[in-house]
Amino acid sequence: MTPYPRPHFDRSHAWASLNGEWDFRADTDAAWGRITVPYAWETPASGVARHWVPLAWYRRTVTVPAAFTERVILHFGAVHHEATVWVNGVEVVRHAGGYTPFEADITDALVPGEQEIVVRVHAPLDKRDIAHGKQRSVPRDDFDGVCFTPSSGIWQSVWLEGRPAAHISALRLRPNETLDGIEVEVLASDGTLRLSLRGGGAVEVPVVDGVARASLPVAEPLLWSPENPQLYYVDAELSSGDRVTAYTGLRRIEAVGEELYLNGRRFFVRGVLDQGYWPLTGITPPSDEALVADIEAAAAAGYNLVRKHLKLEDPRFYHLCDTMGMLVWAEPAATGRFSAESVAAFEAQIAPMVELHGNAPSIVVWGLYNEEWGLDWDIPGDPLKAEAAARSYDLLKARDASRPAVENSGWAHVKTDLLDWHYYDESPSAWARNVADLMNGDRDDFPVKLGPDFVVRKVLAVEPLAGVPNLNSEYGGGFTSVERAWHLRWQTQELRRHDRLAGYVYTELYDIEHESAGLLDFERRAKDLAGVCPAEVNAVTTLVVDVIPVAPARDLLTESRNFTIPVHVSHHGPEPVDGVIHTAWTGLLAPTPVDGTWAEGPAASAKPFVLGSAVPVEAELPAGWPAGRLHLALVSGGTVIARTALDVSTHTGPIIGDDHPL
To answer: What is the pTM assigned to this prediction?
Structure first.
């Protein structure tokens, strides 16, 4: 059974899905074929799998349910990019914007019996002036190397709804300041509105000039958090008989100086990039089960946040994050170059993004532009581009001031609630040095590779920007899966070294087409991570070792079989931790020993969000071993609460590529 496509504005008592088989033809085709909606025509799942088709047509007949006795509304979740819709030959709606929903009241176009729906879709090959995210453009974008197969046409659900002429058009819910009630704003036809909190009380309020507002107290409120994703449902019924349900959670996300707080408690973002692509279905999620699997995979890898990258995802994704307790960084699709048209297209996504997803308690960060894409990589050099970035922030905050917003993720900030930065580096020494310099305030720029032989230095902010949380929101390195796992361990360790940091977002959860940067492959299968466990790397409590590693399987090169390494504890829980560091040896690249012989070492401890003092851990490479993996575990009360590992080798020859050109 097809799930209702809009869980944050639920009128599922009066709907009918139109997903399934439609007639289809490209504009140049002589005859109609068939397509499966809602899959883009480039995808195998659509049954068409055709590429670079700029104009195509959809057609089907439907029977309106007899229960729809007043107005009949035709809904489209998303169509890339421009859609014109006719019902029985009558044009009912035109819409531009490939990631935003639209609807049409088709009642006056209906005829007795079956109804014919025809949709014409224009999907420009040149996408640079429209919002297209990671879809490839011809001519190409500047960022074409990280773009993927386009997803054109109807790519989200199509459905009918029945409603009265006097109806509810928006149901906005936000937790109140004291987190013991829900502030409700309703847009509706004038009349009387009854608002009921499930399991709580109800109020009746008049709708005046299309708006009604009320506060619904929550008795014995339970706060929404990743550990306890408690939701509260509100039923709204208009005197005309129209009724809608929405929900939210009682939670507060706020920046206090350079720290982030969730429900009044400091928290650290452990995030992962999720671009929302699938092998057979493109940008359309194959099913709720596929979305659940991705969320579970992120959680299993130790992440508490998913950055849904450059895409307004299907609403059911945010719903599932709400119910499963996964935090979300949400952002719209990118444009490709700077023009009046591209700025207008980008800004046109902001209001629908907040309207559609603003009730979701899982969303704790709004993103906007990314890495100056659509701004020609030149915010510092052009006041108009800086103005566009700042205006996007103002437009979003006017719609929703309850969440932090980032106007241009990556660098060159002009107006933001989070000072985030994207830094990729293959050199462990340069990575550690530059991260430390950024965190210590010794520098405000870093190298960014924009092409094979084109490296520039990007500033964090156009003007000095202090007193806001600092996040690394993209990082990762390595070509093979073993290399990437190695960088994941050591780069994340260096981020955990710095108490000033408010969090990170790793690139990325799974591979996509030619981009092999994921912890999983494109089909979401496990990869060879050479014994690195992401859940240990991203744990609440981790170990930080004072070593600059050389290369995979050669973290530490030593002439002596006996050595001492300083180890710290990084801890982001609510209470201090203490324990004893244990060590054990296995072969190189091996996972944590199950039955290995563990040696007890020194005591170690840490306060919340304060890196623990270094403790010396003595070790000796076993006799006869030229190399081995030293496993380190922090044991508290008989339980292992943190792990890491160090590959040690007695080989001391030259290591090619260890030095860094920057």
So the answer is: 0.97
C-beta of residue 78 within 8 angstroms of C-beta of residue 110: no
Count of Cβ atoms closer than 10 Å to residue 84 Cβ: 16
Please state the separation of Cα 10 from the chain's center in Å: 23
Distance CA 110, CA 68 (A): 12
Residue 315 near residue 357, CB atoms below 8 Å:
yes
Buried b (16+ CB within 10 A) or exposed e, 284-319: bbeeeeebbebbebbbebbbbbbbbbbbbbbbbbbb
**DSSP tag of 538:** T
pLDDT, one tens digit per residue, over 212-269 is: 999 999 999 999 999 999 999 999 999 999 999 999 999 999 999 999 999 999 999 9
Residue 267 makes CB contacts below 8 A (sequence gap 6+) with 260, 261, 304, 572
| pLDDT tens-place string over residues 306-337 | 999 999 999 999 999 999 999 999 999 999 99
Q: Report d(CA 358, CA 8) in Å as an integer.
A: 9
Q: Identify the helix (H) or strand (E) that includes residue 85.
A: strand 82-87
Going by C-alpha positions, the residue among 148, 186, 182, 150 that lies closest to residue 166 is 186
Under a CB-based contact definition with an 8 Å cutoff, are residues 80 and 99 in contact? Answer: yes
Amino acid in the structure at residue 186: V
Secondary structure (3-state) at 482: helix
Which residues, listed in sequence order, are joined to residue 599 by a DSSP beta bridge? Answer: 583
Residue 118, H or E segment: strand 115-122
Contact 588, 630 (CB under 8 A): no
DSSP bridge partners of 90 = 87
**Is residue 501 a contact partner of residue 570, using CB atoms and an 8 Å limit?**
no
Tokens of 191: 């009349």
